């Protein structure tokens, strides 16, 4: 197979980036070596980045053996996450902005919340929770728009030791009630409506519907956002502003064990039924803080913007916990990238003088499809680091990000990680690691990736390797269990390959030791005995100038076992013709090789995605197989009508 896509040009960090960076290449090598040779020493030192009430004496006690899986970090230390994210900054940066809130409507005023104001808001919020009977260890579901009160709610829970479970505001009443019931929540915090892209989602009324299936006695706390009309149920529902009336903003932070749960969060549901991932207090926070500082090369005074929603782990670790633990200024954005038009992200970067910008390939591809001119009007000169997360980034989209947004001078960090991992696992570091478009590059400190043979499970020792991505030892940000189902936790992550954490992703390691995520293991295509990840073929398609997005899946093929079925979304204004279809087939054949030539290309005006923007190949596989009866769990699907359209087109093709 030709190797063009996988042997691209190295992008070395610029002199400027290197000079500013927390770590250069020598520091990375030295710290990485120490982190894996002496994890206790390394993490004991990193643990000091937090303020402890009782300092820990034990650092690491972890076991990946099936039947006895147990993960504990800093276990005898005590601390409070809200204290670490707020109180300890007051003496030195009380008047510094902690949160910049950019509302959905570009004409509405942005808010700057200082650390002192944050302290007061969170203290009041925490006292409201107490007044409503929420106690340490209780679960609280947060179903909120991207407004500062969502962060206050999370931090208020952390302050009193309640466990939050944030549910993305785009989820339906059913998805909400399943998550409320799943963790037996005492309280749901919501808002009247969630404005997004110029439209209001009726959150409160969704929550009302969800409550029809929630246990009796669950309470609701409602934040006023839009002022839209809602119905309040007497005795069950309360307005935040009424509850806060006259309440003290002084709420002492609860002393929490390092291994007490901080939050539960469901995975995106790309591959199956979402899992309620549990993260705890000390290890998670230390890991979120350290990755935020190093991966984004965050320095005091920088303005950091992660465009994710707080409903995803990315929002937890890189809008709220990591940045605030580091005393950063973090941007919270209520809107979407394409409303009122495709210049919005770049307008916001200019307006708030953003230094680090972190988004997902789905947004980059969508904006690339709209044309370069949307970015050209904005002053992007403050940008110092660009980041991406969520899916493999196609080299073509990477190059676009680099050229059109970074103007060729801003390093890109492609961060591979999962809800389960709490923070970045494989990523470049701006001043230390030269990048290759489409590769997540090298492991973060303390992370020991291994490539396993998918059949035998043996570790492939050779540098150049292709197989299943697993992790050999624990890191502090690792999930501890699945809420209420430790056995499912062990079965999902530790049963297939004994002694390793199994990521579910396939990968390839090149001769320089760089990692390339090739897609989900479940999505691997087997054409005439050749195993192929989805990312490579998709990237070849996206590399064609007419294509903005592509998804490939395997489908039954009489001769080859599996054939390649490609769904292709074209750039705005490009016409879908038979000639183009032939051209794309020839193009992939030339870019990768005859084996990768799609057997069938279907035009796709849109692709089925999770609410977090990831392509759901399991649904595309069903459509390619002509099997429409059992699409599996579709509760996390963003736009169900996309699926109907694809099915209709598929049936018309016969
Ligand atoms: P579920 O586990 O429910 O199927 P999910 O895996 O999409 O959902 P997340 O935890 O949000 O849930 O996503 C993690 C996955 O996203 C990774 O396992 C990987 O497949 C993909 N991913 C994340 N970042 C990257 C990246 N930089 N490069 C390639 N893939 C990535
Ligand atoms: Mg997953």
Automatic annotation (TrEMBL):
Pfam families given in the database record: ACAS_N, AMP-binding, AMP-binding_C
EC code: 6.2.1.1
GO biological process terms, semicolon-separated: acetyl-CoA biosynthetic process from acetate
Catalytic reaction annotation: acetate + ATP + CoA = acetyl-CoA + AMP + diphosphate
Residue ranges of domain AMP-binding enzyme C-terminal in the record: 536-614
Binding-site list for Mg(2+): 542, 544, 547
Transmembrane segments: none
CDD domains attached to this UniProt entry: ACS
UniProt cofactor(s): Mg(2+)
Family from the record: Belongs to the ATP-dependent AMP-binding enzyme family.
Name of this protein: Acetyl-coenzyme A synthetase
Taxonomic source organism: Limimaricola hongkongensis DSM 17492
Gene designation per UniProt: acsA
């Amino acid at each position: 197979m030709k190797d063009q896509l996988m042997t691209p040009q190295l992008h070395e960090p610029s002199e400027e980036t290197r000079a500013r960076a927390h770590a250069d290449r020598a520091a990375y090598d030295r710290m990485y070596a120490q982190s894996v040779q002496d994890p206790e020493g390394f993490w004991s030192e990193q643990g000091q980045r937090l303020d402890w009430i009782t300092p820990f004496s034990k650092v690491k006690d972890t076991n990946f053996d099936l039947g006895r899986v147990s993960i504990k970090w800093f276990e005898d230390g005590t601390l409070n996450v809200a204290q670490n994210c707020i109180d300890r900054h007051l003496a030195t940066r009380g008047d510094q902005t902690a949160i910049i809130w950019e509302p959905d409507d570009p004409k509405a005023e942005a808010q700057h919340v200082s650390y002192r104001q944050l302290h007061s808001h969170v203290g009041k919020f925490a006292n409201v929770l107490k007044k409503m009977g929420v106690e340490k260890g209780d679960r609280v579901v947060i179903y909120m728009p991207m407004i500062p009160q969502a962060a206050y709610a999370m931090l208020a829970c952390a302050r009193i030791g309640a466990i939050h479970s944030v549910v993305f505001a785009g989820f339906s009443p059913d998805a909400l009630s399943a998550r409320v019931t799943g963790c037996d929540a005492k309280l749901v915090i919501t808002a009247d409506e969630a404005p997004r892209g110029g439209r209001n989602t009726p959150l409160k009324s969704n929550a009302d519907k969800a409550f029809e299936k929630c246990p009796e006695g669950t309470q609701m706390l409602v934040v006023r956002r839009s002022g839209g009309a809602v119905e309040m149920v007497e005795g069950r529902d309360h307005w935040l502003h009424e509850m806060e009336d006259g309440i003290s903003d002084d709420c002492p932070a609860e002393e929490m064990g390092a291994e007490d749960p901080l939050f539960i969060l469901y995975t995106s549901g790309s591959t199956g039924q979402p899992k309620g991932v549990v993260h705890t207090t000390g290890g998670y926070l230390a890991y979120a803080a350290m990755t935020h500082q190093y991966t984004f090369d965050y320095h005091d005074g920088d303005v950091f913007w992660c465009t994710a929603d707080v409903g995803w782990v990315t929002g937890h670790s890189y809008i709220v916990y990591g940045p605030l633990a580091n005393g950063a200024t973090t941007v919270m954005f209520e809107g979407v990238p394409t409303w009122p038009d495709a210049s919005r992200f770049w307008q916001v970067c200019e307006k708030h003088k953003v230094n680090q910008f972190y988004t997902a390939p789905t947004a980059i591809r969508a904006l690339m499809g709209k044309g370069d001119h949307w970015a050209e009007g904005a002053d992007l000169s403050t940008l110092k680091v660009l980041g991406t997360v969520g899916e493999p980034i196609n080299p073509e989209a990477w190059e676009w990000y680099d050229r059109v947004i970074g103007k060729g001078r801003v390093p890109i960090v492609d961060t591979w990680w999962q809800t389960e991992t709490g923070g970045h696992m494989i990523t470049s570091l701006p001043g230390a690691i030269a990048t290759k478009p489409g590769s997540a590059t090298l492991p973060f400190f303390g992370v020991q990736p291994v490539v396993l043979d998918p059949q035998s499970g043996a570790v492939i020792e050779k540098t150049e390797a292709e197989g299943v991505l697993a992790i050999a030892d624990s890191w502090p940000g690792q999930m501890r269990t699945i809420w209420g189902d430790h056995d499912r936790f062990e079965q999902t992550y530790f049963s297939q390959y004994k002694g390793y954490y199994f990521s579910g992703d396939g990968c390839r390691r090149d001769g320089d030791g760089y990692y390339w995520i090739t897609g989900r293991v479940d999505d691997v295509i087997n054409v005439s005995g050749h195993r192929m990840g989805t990312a490579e073929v998709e990237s070849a398609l996206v590399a064609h100038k007419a294509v903005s997005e592509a998804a490939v899946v395997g489908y039954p093929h009489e001769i080859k076992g599996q054939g390649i079925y490609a769904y292709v979304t074209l750039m705005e204004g490009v016409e879908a013709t038979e000639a183009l279809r032939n051209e794309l087939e020839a193009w992939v054949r030339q870019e990768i090789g005859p084996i990768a030539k799609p057997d069938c290309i279907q035009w796709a005006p849109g692709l089925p995605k999770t609410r977090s923007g990831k392509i759901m190949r399991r649904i595309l596989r069903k459509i390619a197989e002509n099997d429409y009866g059992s699409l599996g769990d579709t509760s996390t699907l963003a736009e169900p009508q996309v699926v109907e359209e694809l099915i209709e087109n598929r049936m018309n093709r016969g």
